[in-house]
Amino acid sequence: QVQLVESGGGLVQAGGSLRLSCVASGRTFSRNAMGWFRQAPGKQRELVAGISSYDSTYYADSVKGRFTISRDNAKNTVFLQMNSLKPEDTAVYYCAVSVSAVVTTRSGDYAYWGQGTQVTVSS
Question: Among positive and negative, which fits the CA dihedral 42, 105, 97, 12?
Fold first, then answer.
């Protein structure tokens, strides 16, 4: 049974940093792209960062230069380092594993999802 467990969310002031982690269990995902999505109240879920099986990365325009995605295949873990956080970054953040080796922005391309972790940025 595949499980993705996120951690590292919380409350932070604007300008601060958080590091999200997502540990996968049940199988290895070294050949799959992985991504971090977020969903704010009343908004659609969006991909903020993704990393392919060969470590090519994608970032949404809104987080470029502030967020960094990385993965440790030996630990079946994906990370999201978030710096210079803004109140508009407030959302529930989800990690997900794609059915593909390449990053896509469509949530339907992701087969496995974590339960989500809340990130709240105060002004």
Answer: negative
Name which of 101, 111, 108 is nearest 56 in CA terms.
101
Q: Are 56 and 103 in contact (CB under 8 A)?
A: yes
* Strand partners for 45: none
Instruction: Report the first-to-last Cα separation within the chain, whole angstroms.
Output: 40
Q: What is the rounded distance in angstroms from the CA atom of residue 116 to the CA atom of residue 40?
A: 12
Q: In this structure, what token pair is assigned to residue 104?
A: 């896509």
pLDDT digit string, tens, across residues 38-91: 999 999 999 999 999 999 999 999 999 999 999 999 999 999 999 999 999 999
CA distance 37 to 97: 11
Percent of the chain topping pLDDT 70: 100
Tell me which residue has tokens 């956080």. Answer: 85
